[in-house]
Design goal:
The protein is α/β, with parallel strands linked by helices. It has three domains: 73 residues, Arc Repressor Mutant, subunit A (Orthogonal Bundle); 134 residues, Nucleotidyltransferase, domain 5; 185 residues, ATPase, nucleotide binding domain (Nucleotidyltransferase, domain 5), CATH 3.30.420.40. Helices cover 42% and strands 21% of the residues. It contains 13 helices and 16 strands. The strands form four sheets. It has a five-stranded mixed beta sheet with strand order 6-5-4-7-11, sandwiched between helices. A five-stranded mixed beta sheet has the order 14-13-12-15-16. The protein has a three-stranded antiparallel beta sheet with strand order 1-3-2. A hairpin with an 8-residue loop joins strand 9 and strand 10. Helix 1 packs antiparallel against helix 13.
Length: 404
């Protein structure tokens, strides 16, 4: 009975916190109406959270200074912080966010894609996090969550990177590396999940409901990433990042960076486009990193009429389009958001992508999926990370604190 009562209390606290996260500063009555909790329960929970310093109470004057003032509850920004770390092939970005969702600080460090010393890399992440706290004069204990994003294969339920383009099969255990100096909850997520999370949240804000319950995001770049986000019946957004770039397009195709052959990425990643354009043998070991400027030069050649350059982008579009057709066959046709540095030459990929994607039986008997583009992939990753990390804080950490 005691365990059941405590579980109900935590659930109710989480409901109140998620209501504020969804609606912003709200009154007692709005929490009661939105959450479905009784007025007495809302009073008890908000009083408890206020005493713990998690919520703040503020009095707001009526419109035009008239009418009775309203009492609103909002998150106490200083009660917790999230450190968001984004890893790319050539960059590490550190961001600090307070519990109210405000970005407090951000800086970036460049990394050499050829440097594959995993121990030194993990030590670099640790030092970067320490610097993030020092810049804001924040004690490490005030960072409740360290949320790291990367491309590659992430071990489910852990902070371990199983495979990445830079480190190959050398596994990186961020939990083991950071735990000695940090008490924070440490998570590692494929960044495609967060691009989908952010895109879905944007669609949710634009309309009361999705046109469909799912939305997919496709990242064009050194790697090919796919995220799928879905709106649940309670309005929450969940997301997944299947290894789309490493789905087999042609079993006898060129070598991929992952070591397999014929993956979608082996055709559509930057190194795949470069390999096709310059007629490099398919069994040549791919480069770990290809500068965007190099691929943009190939795009310029394609627009000037170079047949091999055009062929390279056509093959990339075919591989992605066939993969998306398979995706729609397994799930359902869903809106698609294109992002990533490869947007600069999406015009060269799009015709073949659409042609092969629309060959799906599901698409043939329905409408072709809507395709939109969103620049600033880094912002999408950050927004998705922030939304997800703060929601996790509401649900699993702050909702379980006990009063002294």
């Amino acid at each position: 009975m005691k365990a059941s009562t405590e579980s109900l209390r935590q659930h109710n606290r989480s409901l109140v916190l998620s209501t504020l996260r969804r609606l912003g500063p709200v009154s007692h009555t709005e929490i009661h109406q939105w959450s479905g909790l009784s007025s007495a329960t809302v009073s008890a929970i908000t009083g408890e959270l206020e005493a713990e310093g998690i919520l703040l109470r503020e009095v707001v004057s009526g419109r035009g200074g008239r009418g009775r003032p309203r009492v609103l509850f909002r998150q106490n920004p200083a009660s917790a912080h999230v450190a968001a770390v984004r890893l790319t092939s050539d960059l590490i970005q550190y961001s600090l966010v307070d519990y109210g969702g405000t970005l407090k600080d951000r800086f970036e460090e460049h990394r050499n894609p050829a440097d594959d010393d995993s121990r030194q890399f993990l030590e670099k992440i640790d030092r970067g996090l320490q610097r993030l706290c020092e810049r804001e004069r924040l004690a490490r204990e005030r960072v409740e969550t360290i949320s790291i994003t990367s491309k590659g294969v992430v071990a489910p339920g852990s902070a371990k990177l199983l495979w990445s383009a830079v480190f190959g099969d050398t596994q990186l255990d961020f939990e083991a590396a950071l735990r000695p100096n940090w008490k924070s909850r440490i998570t590692l997520t494929n960044e495609a999940r967060f691009t989908a999370q952010a895109a879905a949240a944007a669609r949710q804000r634009e309309s009361a409901t999705f046109i469909t319950r799912k939305v997919a995001t496709l990242s064009l770049g050194h790697s090919i990433g796919l995220g799928i986000a879905a709106e649940e019946p309670d309005g929450q957004i969940t997301s997944v990042a299947p290894p789309f770039g490493h789905m087999v397009h042609r079993p006898d195709g060129p070598v991929c960076r992952c070591g397999l052959t014929g993956c979608i990425e082996a055709y559509a990643g930057f190194y795949g486009i470069l390999r096709t354009a310059f007629e490099v043998p398919g069994d040549t070991i791919p480069a770990k990193f290809v500068p965007l400027a190099e691929v943009e030069r190939i795009a310029d050649d394609a627009r000037r009429g170079s047949r091999m350059a055009q062929y390279a982008f056509r093959l990339a579009g075919e591989a992605i389009g066939v993969g998306l057709a398979r995706l729609h066959s397994l799930f359902e046709p869903m809106p698609l958001v294109i992002t990533g540095p490869g947007l600069s030459f999406f015009d060269l990929i799009e015709p073949a992508l659409r042609h092969h994607m629309e060959a799906s039986l599901q698409v043939r008997f329905g409408a072709a999926p809507e395709i939109t583009v969103m620049g600033e992939e880094a912002n999408l990753v950050f927004e998705g990370n922030k939304q997800s990390s703060l929601a996790d804080l509401d649900a699993s950490i702050l909702s379980q604190r006990v009063t002294a």
